[in-house]
């Protein structure tokens, strides 16, 4: 290689590194490494990107731009180390190099897709607001395996639900946004269990102790429900946490050590001073929080990287 070629290669690499630095990305970042939950994959309704941030610094290390109107309220890393996310008008699976594996689109203006998650089988679960609402299961390649329709009783499709989950019994847990009611239904559309919680329910997470963790949106709280009795057994509100106020409580994540990571979405509040992520222990003491000084618009979905 002559000196002229070497010089051009050097300039190209320098420009590439500068671009990565300006965009806030680490060119050495890899989704295949073990991070022990110290890196967080995040997204937020109203924020035109998804990103990985470092917990210690709060700096982005990987970013992916979203299109106009592509609000993301559900994001996760799959078993294959791909990135799965919902974006209102569809759901998309991309590789770490940002190549599209599959892209499932819904009826624009008539449906909204807020749930995109990988099932234990390796397939995928999508939940779509509409009249009727739909639950769709895809195979590993993104092809439709199963679909059924149901009614939420909520007229405005944007107010129907956000993040749902499928149980090991093949039923579906649906936190109804507008009515503050959590229901469990089967594919025959029968309601098997239900409980009124209040607030604008955002998500439900199945815990290992036969409990459900529910984020209550503008109810400014998290609750736990015992699936044996379908009664509320624990409530975490702003009054229980010193040092931060709960705004719109979006997706939570329960760590194995009992700590809870909370997405504190600020889109419905004039108060932009509160941390966008809050991590509390079993006694509701804050152990970590993200104050990014406005670099991130807001966060409604989080996935700690293992």
3D architecture notes:
- It is a single chain.
- The protein has 306 residues and is mainly beta.
- It has one domain: 6 Propeller (Neuraminidase), CATH 2.120.10.30.
- The protein has 1 helix and 24 strands.
- Strands 3-2-1-24 form a 4-stranded antiparallel sheet, with no helix packed on it. The protein has a 4-stranded antiparallel sheet with strand order 4-5-6-7, with no helix packed on it.
- It starts with a helix and ends with a strand.
Can you tell me the CATH superfamily?
TolB, C-terminal domain
So what's the CATH class?
Mainly Beta
* Most strands sheet: 4 strands, antiparallel
Domains counted in the coordinates: how many? Answer: 1
CATH topology: Neuraminidase
Please state the structural category. Answer: mainly beta
Shape: globular
**Rg:** 20 Å
Mean residue pLDDT: 93
> How far do the termini sit from each other?
42 Å
Would you count the extended β strands for me?
A: 24
Proportion in helices:
under 10%
**Strand content bin:** 35-45%
CATH architecture: 6 Propeller
Order of strands side by side in the largest beta sheet? 3-2-1-24
H-E string = HEEEEEEEEEEEEEEEEEEEEEEEE
Low-confidence stretches: 11-24
Number of helices in the DSSP assignment: 1
């Amino acid at each position: 290689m002559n000196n002229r070629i070497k010089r051009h290669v050097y300039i190209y690499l320098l420009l590439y590194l500068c671009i990565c630095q300006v965009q806030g990305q680490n060119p050495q970042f890899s989704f295949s490494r073990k991070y022990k939950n110290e890196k967080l994959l995040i997204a937020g309704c109203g924020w035109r990107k998804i990103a990985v941030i470092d917990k210690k610094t709060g700096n982005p290390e990987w970013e992916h731009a979203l299109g106009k109107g592509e609000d993301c309220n559900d994001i996760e890393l799959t078993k294959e180390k791909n990135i799965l996310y919902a974006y209102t008008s569809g759901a998309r699976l991309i590789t770490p190099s940002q190549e599209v594996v599959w892209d499932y689109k819904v009826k624009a203006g008539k449906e909204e897709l807020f749930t995109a998650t990988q099932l234990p089988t390796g397939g995928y679960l999508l939940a779509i607001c509409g009249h009727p609402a739909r639950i769709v299961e895809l195979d590993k390649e993104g092809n439709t395996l199963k679909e059924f329709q149901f009614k939420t009783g909520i007229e405005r499709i944007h107010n129907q639900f956000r993040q749902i989950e499928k149980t090991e019994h093949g039923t579906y847990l649906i936190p109804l946004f507008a009515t503050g009611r959590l229901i469990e239904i089967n594919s025959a559309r029968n309601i098997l269990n239900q409980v009124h919680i209040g607030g604008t329910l955002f998500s439900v997470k199945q815990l290992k102790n036969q409990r459900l963790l529910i984020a209550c949106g503008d109810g400014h709280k998290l609750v736990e429900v015992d699936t044996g009795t379908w009664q509320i057994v624990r409530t975490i509100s702003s009054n229980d946490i010193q040092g931060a106020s709960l705004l719109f409580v979006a997706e939570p994540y329960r760590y194995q050590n009992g700590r809870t990571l909370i997405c504190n979405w600020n889109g419905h509040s004039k108060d932009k001073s509160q941390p966008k992520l809050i991590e509390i222990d079993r006694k509701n003491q804050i152990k970590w929080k993200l104050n990014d000084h406005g670099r991130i618009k807001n966060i409604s979905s989080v996935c700690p990287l293992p």
